[in-house]
Structure formats: structure tokens, C-alpha cells
Design goal:
Length: 326
Amino acid sequence: MLYPLKFKPIFKEKIWGGNKIKTLFGKDFQPLKNCGESWEISGVEGNLSVVENGFLAGNDLSELLEIYMGELVGEKVFEKFGLQFPILVKFIDSAEWLSVQVHPDNTLAQKIYGTEGKTEMWYIMQADENAQLISGFNKKIDEKIFLENLNNNKLKDILNFEKVEEGDVFYIPAGRIHAIGPGVCLAEIQQTSDITYRIYDWDRVDKNGTSRELHTEQALAAIDYKYYENYKSDNAFIVNHSSNIVKSPYFTTNIIAIDKPMHRDYYDVDSFVIYMCTEGAFTIEYENQKEYIKKGETVLIPAELTILNLVPDSKAKLLEIFIEEV
């Protein structure tokens, strides 16, 4: 019988990274200096997550899929994605602005790379005072207006800046221009893809005076120029219930805030479930066994494990992620 799986984090040095992944979550990312990302569960080639608990410790996600298939991810999910784990989840800490960027959708990514595109979402776990991010445009524009602003170093004039605080949720569909600002620590849920088109990098250079590569031509093929009145998703939740915040073809994400034991039945889901603990700590009770999860930890619940109890220490908050629309 499979069990709740924890994986060794994959830490990423980033020019814009900080130290909150250590200070907030207690994760030791040495010898890195500026850790921008902790990949919690990854099926990205070359960055496969490795189990760190139980009898499967030392096995990577690809090996688990080869052996357990639908028992691990759900029959419909395995039928669609095969040996490719379809979701990548990470924690991100930005001490400086990330580049202004965009990701291709499935159609464009399949055409160029033969892979999935990259739709993602952000859940803000901590934000310094007046911290911001960018999501979309602040008015109606087209490619001509975009290029005029980009070439005249006025791109910021047409971008939608959002002040953020803990608990904010942003859905970033493929094609939406975006960037995370300084002082933000968040959980990111995304399709399994590492394709990023960098548009503007704040005139930043490395220690050798070299700018990072930009991908303007590729980005032009990917950008969605639509303007929206509101780019922030609903983050309302009811305590001791599973409250939906994002429902997409690529993943469903709910918030669970608990101050008493909660029963979960995933019999009708036919998908793996991922828990990312964002506050407090809780125990997963299953098959007369237990697994403890604290803030900053992530766990994969295999699809065959359908009946669970979540028992908070006193109170806890977690993201509940699975694939609903296969």
C-alpha cells in the first residue's frame, strides 16, 4: 500500500533570490547564497523529485510512476499524461524583482518543443509591507502599443502592478505577462514545464556586467493582450471546509483551514492530491498510520489512498491540489 510521500526539496540559486525559504520554513539550502526557489514536487526532466520518507525513500518520481502508474496518480491522469507527472509545485522567495515574463500555452509549446505549456497560480504566504507583483496589463493594448512601450523603455507604464498581502491568490494563465516583486514569498502551482520567455529584466547585470538573455520574439507569439478589470482571484474560505480558489483544466486548488479534525474522502476524485502546508501543522491519519506535516512542507497523497483524517496541532492552513478536469 502506498502512503503520503514527502520529497527532498530541489533548491535553485537565483539572482533575485533571498533567504526566506530558510527563515520562514527552516529549509537548509546551503551552499546556495540566494535561494529563489524550492521545488517541492517536480517531474521536470533533470529535476526529478526523490522520496525522502518511508520504504520508497531514494526513488524518484519517474520510477514511482513506472511502478505504480494509476495507483499513484489516478487512472485517468495516468492515461492522459503517462510517465510525465503533470504538476510542478514550489515555494518562491523574491528579494528583488523577477524578470517581466510570459509562458507559452499548450498549442504553442507543443508546436515548438513538443511539451506542455505553462499555466500557473500563486498563493502569497508572506509579503513585506508595500510588496508588489505584476499581473497583466493596466489598460487595453495591442502588439504595436506593447512594442512601442518596450522599445522606449516605458513597459512599466502599461503593466498592472498589484500590492499584495498574505493570503492573496493570483491565477496566471499561459500568455499573461507577469513578475513577482521584492519581499514576496509564495507557493506556486503550475503545469510541468520550465519554459519562460523573459521580456524585461530591470536593466540588471551579473557580477561580470552581463545582462540575462531576453526572448522578445518568442514572447510576442505567446502574449495575451486582453485587459481585465480584476486579476486577483477570490481567496474566501470557510474554516473546516475545503474552499475552492482556482479551478482550471490543469489543476484545481482549494484552501483548507482547520481548527479541529477534518475527514477527507477522495474516492470520486481519481487523482493524486498534493498538500502544501502554509500555516501551522497537522497530522495525516490513514490506514491506522500517521504522517506529520508542518508549515513549508509538501506531501503527495497517492490516488489509491482515498480516506484520510487531517488533525491540526491547534490550527493549520493548507493548499489542496489535484487534477479534476482530465
